[in-house]
Design brief:
alpha+beta
Length: 285
């Protein structure tokens, strides 16, 4: 079996230094579609270095290295075909606000391996700390088709009961035609998001948007709509990737406010509100 669960879990964590500066943060925000309208004061906090605030989901690309999905596939005990891999979900815990510029140590390991029958799920955990202490913890759930069935632990269920009633707020965000090409410059060079031939091999009609781009766009919508634009209020952010997004489509982002949390559901308008992000929760202070 290409995934050796015992070997993957027993492997020594990998640590390395990451650095980022305001240019990386600006590029990330632009990759999410920030800056429309370009002179809007609420957008300038994402696009102008003198007013810059860091959207917490920047943690998924900080250091411009491979995201958890890619780095997880290079760990001991894991040898799979990239075309059979999907990003199943993402969890982010913030220990304090992310600085505009920084140098930190990122330590990654396979935290769990689950047997879903027709697929395996790897949980790639990355913990990041600088000289002042922990900054954030990222968990990437890596879904590998055709690699389950060895009788291992199925893992916990991440499904939540649907939110009741009408959403408190609904916003729609357009994904630009070239958005995946721009977002790739943040560090995820998977050809699935740019190469039509590779996309066809992976089972898609055309290149798809990065799940983490949708993830970032959604968090920005929540922060701007329900948290007064204050990025420092975000404490954690969890989602399950329920479907793909194609560049050029419109995201419908529904939000339900709860005590200390926002429940979110995201769908693709042009495909009959096909689910894109599900079981999504933003916890805030």
């Amino acid at each position: 079996m290409p995934i050796d669960a015992a070997k993957a879990l027993a492997a020594e964590p990998r640590s390395g230094e990451i650095t980022w500066d305001r240019k990386d943060v600006l590029l990330y925000h632009l990759g999410l579609g920030a800056g429309v309208p370009a002179t809007d004061p609420d957008e300038l906090r994402y696009t102008l270095e003198s007013r810059l605030h860091v959207l917490p989901s920047f943690a998924t690309v900080a250091g411009n290295g491979s995201p958890g999905v890619i780095s997880g596939l290079s760990m001991p005990g894991v040898d799979v075909d990239l075309a059979r891999v999907l990003h199943g979900g993402q969890s982010l815990t913030l220990h304090r606000p992310i600085p505009v510029e920084g140098t930190a140590t990122a330590t990654g390991r396979i935290a769990a391996v689950y047997d879903k029958g027709k697929a395996a799920v790897l949980v790639m955990r990355t913990e990041v700390a600088d000289a002042d202490g922990p900054l954030w913890t990222n968990d990437a759930q890596i879904f590998v088709r055709g690699e389950g069935g060895w009788g291992g632990d199925r893992g916990p269920s991440t499904r939540l009961e649907p939110s009741a009633g009408e959403p408190d707020r609904t916003v729609e965000k357009t994904v630009r035609e070239e958005q995946a090409l721009l977002y790739r410059l943040c560090g995820d060079w998977n050809p699935l998001h740019a190469d039509p031939e590779f996309a066809k091999v992976a089972g898609f009609d055309r290149p798809i948007l990065h799940g983490l781009c949708t993830y970032g766009m959604t968090l920005k919508a929540v922060v701007d709509t329900l948290l007064g634009g204050d990025v420092t209020r975000v404490r954690s952010y969890t989602t399950r990737f329920a479907g793909v997004v194609y560049p050029g489509e419109t995201l419908r982002i529904r939000m339900w406010r709860q005590e200390g949390a926002v429940r979110v559901a995201v769908s693709a308008v042009e495909r009959g509100d096909a689910p894109v992000l599900a079981d999504t929760v933003v916890e805030y202070s």
